[in-house]
Amino acid sequence: MPLKYKDVKVGSYFLDFLIDNKIVLEIKRGDYFRKVNIEQVYHYLVATDLALGVLAQFTGSGVRIKRILNLYP
Predict the structure, then answer these.
(1) What is the pLDDT, as a whole number, of residue 68?
(2) Which residue has the higher pLDDT, 8 or 18?
């Protein structure tokens, strides 16, 4: 996904998955949700004007899911 500032491309975002052009899905591994990963998904939502992101965390005991909302898409 292009990262733009004032309609000029200044970089790129590399989303793990974009589902139906509505939901950002980011996959990580580890035993807990890190603040930096939550912020990463939130920044993807702001950059794409989407409302919902899902962070899937693969742990030793299974998969944990965290929904992340962009309240101002």
Answers:
(1) 98
(2) 18
